[in-house]
């Protein structure tokens, strides 16, 4: 085990945050809640520029963290879930696999082919809404634990 591996292990088993400045740690990942607004695809590009991706909550705990933290930060946030490829089939962008957690607000999704991207909707206390992918909202990037060099 080299020094870097050791630091990563320490980060993962302790309360030390190993996220870059401005990112928020939850479990073994780091999240950036943007201040700027972008369309869904532009948001995805911005996240990619930081060696990250639009957040893809894989379990209820993570999804609820994103929802609650979005309320703290304030605003509407894109995440990396869409039904762009096939209407009504909600998938994570990475791997294009069906969602494992569903936090759509009751009554959502409700906009069919006019809305193919998932946003944490402020008026729903952060629960999900299907939205037009071209709308410009804040967004949440997700990265693996990062250690400042
Ligand atoms: Ca749709």
TrEMBL record:
Aminoacyl-tRNA synthetase found in the keyword field: no
Keyword Ligase: no
Native organism: Mytilus galloprovincialis (Mediterranean mussel)
GO molecular function: carbohydrate binding; growth factor activity
Swiss-Prot/TrEMBL keywords: Disulfide bond, Lectin, Secreted, Signal
CDD domains attached to this UniProt entry: CLECT (cd00037)
Coiled coil: none
Region forming the signal peptide: 1-18
GO cellular component, one term: extracellular space
Protein name as it appears in the record: C-type lectin domain-containing protein
Domain C-type lectin: 26-142
